[in-house]
Every structure is written in structure tokens, then in C-alpha cells.
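Catalogue entry: protein

Sequence with per-residue C-alpha cells
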Amino acid sequence: MFTPELIAKLEKSRLAAVLTIENPDNAIPVARALLDGGVSVIELAFRTPQAAEAIQRIRENVPEITIGAGTVLNPQQVKDAAAVGAAFGVAPGCNPRTLRAAQDCRLPFAPGVATPTDIEIALEHRCNVLKFFPAETSGGLAHLNNIATPFAHLGLRYFPLGGINAGNLAMYLQSPLVACVGGSWLAKPDVVQKHDWETIRRNAAEAMTIVRSIQPT
């Protein structure tokens, strides 16, 4: 379960950079570039063997960043994320074994949901922030509004990701259901590999201009 303090950090940033890092030496420059552009939350995907080390480097060297672990698919990855001090974990789906491991490790966890059944599974494991994924191909904000309605009295918050970009970011931010939006376009792998920190900073700054222009309705 996300604490009120952690939810407040997501709500303050409204945008989380979602990225994959192949080389841990790139972790700190990426984090600083994003922070310089105004983005203070990162979901770093557990898609490479270097992910845990990259999370630890960011946590220790760029403490202004709230760093979480993404694409957490099994109990061992939950343990690895917790061991390096990830602030939270995120998964593309609702694997009960992974959710139980997150409870055991006391790691705030946002499982992926796209149906009411997914939400019920998440609730069984005391999750209060849910990743709406894949957002656009699942039906976008209209679909989220529909599946969230039966649970509205529970105060759940959502973290949409998948198909979101600068063109539709504002639409998602206007929803009171949305705590934070995931942005995979901010620091794409090829840009990171080129060490193009200025492009990442500029992407973040442009996105945050949109964020600051929107108030939830």
C-alpha cells in the first residue's frame, strides 16, 4: 500500500519518467537531466540485469528523485527492488505471488489493471495505487472511468501508462482518478545510449509545462 506521503509525491510530480537502463553509469546523468527538466519521479524497469544497481545509484546520488522499480514480474524481483531501496514497485499485471511478496517486503506496489477483475485482485492485496496498463489500447480514459466507477468509494488512485505522449498527456491529467502519468517518451533507450542528456532535459521540461497548465477537474 502506498503511504499518503508517497502518493503526495506522485501527485506533486504528476508525471513519472519510465525508462530502461542498460549501463548503470548512465543512471545518475539520466536522473539529473530529468530532474533539471522538472520530473522528480522515475519508474526504472527491471528489464536488464543492471536495473537494481541503477536504482541504488539514483537513490544514493540524486535523493531528490523518487525512484521506483518497474516491470516487476516475480517475488525475487520484489526482493531485489526492496533491497536496493526502491520507493515503490510497479507491475504490468496482477500476479498474486508477486503481490504477496510485495506485502511481505512492505514494498508499496502498483499492479497493472485493465478490468474490474484486475482491480478486485489488487484490492485483495491491499493495493491503493493501480497502474492502468496498457492505457490507450485498453480504451483510454473512457475505459478507465468505466472500470473505476464501481470502486470509486474506495479512493483508489491510478497511474496510466502505455500510448501516452505529449499529445494526450493533458487529457489524462485532467482526470481526478489519476495520481500520476507514466511517460516512456521522456528518456528513450536510444537517447540514453547516446548520452543525449539535453534532449532528455528538454523532453522533461516540455512535458512539465503541460503538467503545470492543467488542474484536475
About this structure: Residues 34 and 52 are 19 Å apart (CA to CA). The chain has a mean pLDDT of 96. The first strand starts at residue 15 and ends at 19. The chain has one domain: 4-213.
